[in-house]
Amino acid sequence: MHGSGQDKMIRETEKPCLLVVMGPTAVGKTGTAIALAKLCDGEIVSADSMQVYRHMDIGTAKPTPAEQGLVPHHLIDIVNPDEAFSAASYMERARAAIADLHRQGKGIVVAGGTGLYIRALLGGLFDGPGADEVLRRFYAAILEREGKPGLYEILKSKDSRAAATIHPNDAARMVRALEVLELTGVSIVDQQQDHGFAQRPYKVLKIGLRVERPLLYERIEARTDQMMAQGFLEEVQRLLEMGFSEDLKPMQALGYRQLVRVLKGTLELEEAVRSIKRETRHYAKRQLTWFGADPEISWFDAGDREGIVRSAGRFLGEKSL
Questions:
Q1: Of 89, 110, 149, 171, which sits 20 to 30 A from 67 (CA to CA)?
Q2: Per the confidence metrics, is the pTM higher than 0.85?
Q3: Is 21 marked within a binding site?
Q4: Is position 26 annotated in a ligand binding site?
């Protein structure tokens, strides 16, 4: 027992220090993360559930090649759209990247708007994730096509332990079990147990970016128009031509889902763009609700670069910032 306090202090100082930039879509996380990374000789670890996919660049608002050239980025373009990827996959790969950067003595900036991925990285997956509308639509389509017996067979093949605890007529619980497995990589049966994910492996400064709601909505509308001008529709067409099915989870995501319908001739382009803008506003509101529930976030106006840098400098203890 002797010296345990000193041992704990040593362990604390050995923990990697993370600057975590978060906030709603279109608020300006990429620019802020790049500025912070350049100031602390750091690299960026993305926390975005769509930017992990190759070939999906415009619709995911991926940092441009020029932006990625300014500062090395990790966890971008790491899987194909038809490969399984979950919050558990993200946690494993992001923690490996952070360990590597820490060994190199690099500054580490985590940036993204996927709250579940950030929570998994910083504290684990001991809470069940929130609902995923894309997944629920996906399994609702299966339910409509194949009925409860078909859905139950899928559950049995993917998570036999959950299937053993859920009645074959309980469609809602079947969908939830499949959703939890897909999002976390962990069976819902294990969700009530402690898997050792509750550790805090990092020292963290959470930097939340915000702008007034009307300005955020203006940015969302302008960025949607910019995505269309950059070739978002052509990007979706290329994905389909490459053989990536419209039924894949990432192809059901916001923007991609609407533009697939345009290409199939079941939705007018103008209406698709209006739908993308409307759903993106709703998505931003959900992000704000998620992040607003975290008391550890220090909130800044997105344009307050000086205040953000000053706070990061104090946290890192580097007056050079």
A1: 89
A2: no
A3: no
A4: yes
